[in-house]
Design goal:
The protein is mostly helical. The protein contains nine helices and no strands. It has a domain of 92 residues: Recoverin, domain 1, CATH 1.10.238. The chain starts with a helix and ends in a 38-residue tail after the last helix.
Length: 188
């Protein structure tokens, strides 16, 4: 009899624990589709040109990667014509992008440096000169390029102001961790 009671209590305890676990609202789980999908911190896919140049995928284009830039850029040449067009070095247009044909995302510094004449095509001469052009982006002279050097600093979105204090400066501190209740710059 004691054995039956112990088994019954054990079964009840396991069942109650399972029910409690299933009934909990998991608000800390990532959004469906994995990180970056449907959440507030969506990061766009990396540029193919960055993926090609940053061979070791550490986010830094180091001196060896800069020296090998010609060969790595040519891996993007899908049609073998010796030049790179935007459909070869940029990601496809996002599905949620405005339908306006004049819509263009900001041009990263690395594209501006490699496409010297600004025609949207990185031609054979520009590919050949790629290591020298990339080194021009090295602002601190350490022989490698960080994200800030090859993409540029992300602009901060303008702060929303519900009131205009007429001072022309930032909104007054509301005691919530900084202007407008922010604790610092938006996450990147």
């Amino acid at each position: 009899m004691k054995m039956k009671i112990k088994m019954l209590l054990t079964s009840f305890a396991i069942g109650a624990a399972a029910f409690t676990a299933c009934a909990q609202d998991d608000t800390n789980s990532p959004p469906p589709g994995g990180p970056g999908f449907g959440g507030h911190h969506h990061r766009p896919p990396p540029l193919p040109i960055i993926t090609a140049l940053d061979v070791n995928r550490d986010g830094i284009i180091d001196s060896n990667e800069i020296a090998n830039a010609r060969a790595e850029l040519l891996t993007l040449d899908k049609n073998g014509d010796g030049i790179l067009t935007t459909n070869e070095y940029l990601p496809p247009r996002p599905a949620n992008a405005p339908a306006d044909d004049n819509w263009h995302p900001p041009t990263p510094l690395i594209i501006k440096a490699l496409d010297v004449n600004g025609d949207g095509v990185i031609d054979a001469t520009e590919i050949a000169d790629a290591p020298a052009e990339l080194l021009k982006l090295d602002k601190n002279g350490d022989g490698q390029l960080t994200r800030d050097e090859y993409i540029g600093k992300r602009p901060h979105p303008p702060q929303h102001r519900d009131d205009d204090n007429g001072a022309g400066g930032p909104p007054p501190d509301d005691g919530m961790g900084g202007p407008g209740g922010q604790d610092g710059p938006p996450p990147q």
